[in-house]
Amino acid sequence: KNSSNLSLPPGPKGLPVLGNLLDLNGSQPWVSFTQWASTYGNVIYCKLFGRQIVVLQHRSSIYSDRPPLSTTKAIGSEFNSAQLRYSDEWRLHRRIFHQSFRPEAAKDYLPIQLRKARQLLQGIIEAPERYQRHIELFASSVIMSAVYDYEAKLNNDPLLLTAEKAIKVFLEMASPQTSAILETFPFLLKLPSWFPGASLKRLAIQSQINATAMVNIPFNYARERVMTATSNQCMISESLKRLDTSGNVDEFELALKSSSATAFIAGTASTLTVFVLAMMLYPDVQKRAQEEIEAVIGTDQLPTFEDRPSLPYVEAVLRETLRWHPVFPLGLPHYTAESDVYNDHYIPKGAIVMANIWAMSKDEVKYPKPDDFKPERFFMANGQLNDDTVDFPFGFGRRVCVGKYFADASLWISIVSLLATFRFMRPLDNEGKEVDPIFQWSTGLISHPKSLPCRVVPRHPEMTARMLADVIELSA
Ligand code: HEM
């Protein structure tokens, strides 16, 4: 109890130092939090190493701060808008993003997203076994174009590889488990890098090098092109146009290049991999979506954004993909800069507050049989789509995802283009029988199927890369 006589929220009793670590499903903590809710209710308190953690099982717009992490500097992630404290610097980042990616402005990037979705189809038809790599390339090259007006090459593009390398290390270092360990045992980052067991320190140094490259190289490329008036519209060119040269130019440039680099750390590719898994496991859903596309568009053209209102079932497939397996199951951590009272519980200062997006997606009242992939759940009795657009996977309040409208368009155009062109089927065993795919889920902040085996075949068996190129040419 505290001075106002309110108690901390309930939660499992933990051990000193380790806290509730032993009670927690380490690779999928959101599953444990969701189970705990049936015992402790919708607001749970627990401790992980020294950190106080409050988990909310419902949507909440409270607490706009992010936890300060002593590892931020060590891994070179000061640039990351998503990690900034609630401050003027964060407001500047947010403004830059908002100007390019608010709903009206994000429309300017639809042509890029359409073009990249079709490149994705071409990549897959040429190398279907590498479909997952092409999905990753789609997600990052669409950002490269929209943010830097940089046309990434499909093979070994140096800027893309730099960004991807940087993100991989960040996600490893930023997982709740690794950061909790580093927060509790900061000496791990002080050991000389040759010291046995100092692998985290080595990883941290590598991360700093990657981050510097990722923040500066593409930005310098884009700025150069803006200065020589050769740039097309992109977040950098638009922001530099708005630059008030009487203000603090250095501060603005730093915010611009930092927020730009943050755009890479997004969930688009992971969400698309979840979509592929769902299509494989639910062939009837896949077929129904394909029939809808065929009825509306035919077979000799590819869908465009104009077709979106005429394809309600595809819309429901996108919503169900976001709901069925949210790729940020715990969102990003929020933080209490001051103590607070919430739902009659005392919330201490300095607590990490997580909204359990996973629990929201598995709400059996709202989504009966939540483990089933069922786009039909989004239709009302009159056959119209309901108004649940599944926005909770993008977070809440002032820290809600700033890229959500852009991400929504990228996801829709890639999903509809993939469905129009390919079938996603289960892998075959030695006897040629279809079997469920065997794969692992990634752990850490982002959860998605890793190395997901899938047979991706053109919907029309005679379709070749050459013919697809013709269809793309003929499509609007
Ligand atoms: C399917 C794709 C995506 C998903 C599921 C997703 C999800 C999220 C989530 C859960 C958060 C944390 C919200 C919170 O703290 O409550 C977030 C924050 C953020 N997202 Fe996204 N995101 C996606 C795509 C994107 C894209 C494409 C961009 C950039 C163009 C982007 C930029 C950001 C930024 C900058 C933040 C930090 C916001 C802040 O801290 O103020 N995201 N996103």
UniProtKB/TrEMBL annotation:
<dbReference type="GO" id="GO:0016705">
    <property type="term" value="F:oxidoreductase activity, acting on paired donors, with incorporation or reduction of molecular oxygen"/>
</dbReference>
<dbReference type="InterPro" id="IPR036396">
    <property type="entry name" value="Cyt_P450_sf"/>
</dbReference>
<keyword id="KW-0479">Metal-binding</keyword>
<dbReference type="InterPro" id="IPR017972">
    <property type="entry name" value="Cyt_P450_CS"/>
</dbReference>
<dbReference type="GO" id="GO:0004497">
    <property type="term" value="F:monooxygenase activity"/>
</dbReference>
<feature type="binding site" description="axial binding residue">
    <location>
        <position position="401"/>
    </location>
    <ligand>
        <name>heme</name>
    </ligand>
</feature>
<dbReference type="Pfam" id="PF00067">
    <property type="entry name" value="p450"/>
</dbReference>
<comment type="pathway">
    <text>Secondary metabolite biosynthesis.</text>
</comment>
<dbReference type="InterPro" id="IPR001128">
    <property type="entry name" value="Cyt_P450"/>
</dbReference>
<keyword id="KW-0503">Monooxygenase</keyword>
<protein>
    <submittedName>
        <fullName>Cytochrome P450</fullName>
    </submittedName>
</protein>
<dbReference type="GO" id="GO:0020037">
    <property type="term" value="F:heme binding"/>
</dbReference>
<dbReference type="GO" id="GO:0005506">
    <property type="term" value="F:iron ion binding"/>
</dbReference>
<keyword id="KW-0732">Signal</keyword>
<keyword id="KW-0560">Oxidoreductase</keyword>
<keyword id="KW-0349">Heme</keyword>
<comment type="similarity">
    <text>Belongs to the cytochrome P450 family.</text>
</comment>
<keyword id="KW-0408">Iron</keyword>
<dbReference type="InterPro" id="IPR050364">
    <property type="entry name" value="Cytochrome_P450_fung"/>
</dbReference>
<dbReference type="InterPro" id="IPR002401">
    <property type="entry name" value="Cyt_P450_E_grp-I"/>
</dbReference>
